[in-house]
Amino acid sequence: MFAVAERPDPIPGRGEVAIDVEVADTLWLETRIRSGAGQDYWPSRPPYVPGNGVAGRVAQVGDGVDPTLGGVRVVAHTGNEGGYADRIVVRPMPSRSCRTGWT
Question: Global pTM?
Answer without folding.
Answer: 0.77
